[in-house]
Each structure stands twice: as structure tokens, then as C-alpha cells.
UniProtKB/TrEMBL annotation:
5-phospho-alpha-D-ribose 1-diphosphate binds at R86, K87, K90, E112, D113, I114, A115, T116, T117, G118, Q119, S120. This is Orotate phosphoribosyltransferase. Homodimer. Residues 41-150 form the Phosphoribosyltransferase domain. The keyword Nucleus does not apply. One of its GO terms (molecular function) is orotate phosphoribosyltransferase activity. Belongs to the purine/pyrimidine phosphoribosyltransferase family. PyrE subfamily. Its cofactor is Mg(2+). Its EC number is 2.4.2.10. The lineage of its organism: Archaea, Methanobacteriati, Methanobacteriota, Stenosarchaea group, Halobacteria. InterPro entries: OPRT (IPR023031), Or_phspho_trans_dom (IPR004467), PRTase-like (IPR029057), PRTase_dom (IPR000836). Keywords: Glycosyltransferase, Magnesium, Pyrimidine biosynthesis, Transferase.
Length: 175
């Protein structure tokens, strides 16, 4: 599955080379464009199938905005409900930070697109735990291998990735 997924991400040119600023403020000589793989039906289907193989009876949680398509597609593939976790509670309507429902004590697995430091996943885990969920795992499409595993471990959560940056960059083109 790993090679097939790498081929799909490369086919949609999701990996870019150059100089890029990352969401945590650092820079990188490559960028994984989640919107290219999340909006391609073949990529989205493959990711959802791979995630569905790794979940049991857990409710899924997609971190807004990037992981919402992943959570929705995986929900259909796995037959599992999902919730959406916002970065912060909205200031209108219901004022929710978590959209959707789960029971207190229910197991929830967080889905994420790309993990660099893992901070957005840690924030989502904390919000879910404060709302009564039991969260032990985060599933991510690509782990950039820049501290997310360690940061999530400090929060008591395991990071599982479909791919790592090493997998994707193994045969990088000349830049």
C-alpha cells in the first residue's frame, strides 16, 4: 500500500520542491500539498481505505480544515461516525469547538493530513479529552518526521502514519 500511495501522491504532484514556509513558522525545501491529495478522488479513496483498515469501533475526528475530507471519506469507508474539531470554539451559532456527537468515555481516533510538530493534533486531542473522549491514537497521512511523534507521545498519544517524509522523498527529483 505504501508504494501505491506514494505513486498516487506523486501523480497529483503533491510533493513540491523549493523553499516553503510551514504553518509552525519554520521553513522547508519541500512541501506536501494536502489539498492536491485531498481533492483527488483516487488519492482520497486510497487514504480513506488505508485509514479504515486501521480503525475499529472508534469514532473518527477530523481536525478542521485539512482533515475533514479525510474524516468524511474514512467515515464512509469504515462505517464509523465522525466529528470535526475546530482550532477554537466558533463565536456564533452553537459556539461549538467540536461538531458532531460522541458519548463521554467513547474512544476517538484523530485523523490528520500532515504532521510536522504535531501541535494541531495535540490541540485536537486535548479538546476531545476535555469533552470526555478517550483518545489514544492519531492517524496521519504524512509524518514529516520533525517532532510530531515525540510531541504526541508527551501528550500520551501514539502517532501512526501511512507515509513518512523519508518514504516520499526517497527518490526525489533533482532540484
Amino acid at each position: 500500500m505504501t508504494e501505491a500511495l506514494i505513486d498516487l501522491l506523486r501523480a497529483v504532484e503533491a510533493v513540491k520542491y523549493g523553499e516553503f514556509e510551514l504553518s509552525h513558522g519554520g521553513t522547508s525545501d519541500y512541501y506536501v500539498d494536502k489539498y492536491l491529495f485531498e481533492t483527488d478522488p483516487d488519492c482520497l479513496d486510497a487514504i480513506a481505505a488505508a485509514f479504515a483498515d486501521r480503525v475499529d469501533d472508534e469514532t473518527l475526528a477530523g481536525v478542521a480544515l485539512g482533515a475533514v475530507p479525510l474524516a468524511a471519506a474514512t467515515s464512509v469507508a469504515a462505517g464509523s461516525p465522525y466529528v470535526i474539531v475546530r482550532k477554537q470554539a466558533k463565536e456564533y451559532g452553537t459556539g461549538n469547538q467540536i461538531e458532531g456527537t460522541f458519548e463521554e468515555g467513547e474512544e476517538v481516533v484523530v485523523l490528520e493530513d500532515i504532521a510536522t510538530t504535531g501541535q494541531s493534533a495535540v490541540d485536537a486531542v486535548e479538546a476531545l479529552q476535555e469533552a470526555g473522549a478517550v483518545v489514544e491514537r492519531v492517524l496521519v497521512v504524512v509524518d514529516r518526521e520533525e517532532g510530531a511523534t515525540e510531541n504526541l507521545a508527551e501528550a500520551g498519544v501514539e502517532l501512526e502514519s501511512l507515509l513518512t517524509a523519508s518514504d516520499l522523498l526517497d527518490e526525489q527529483p533533482d532540484t
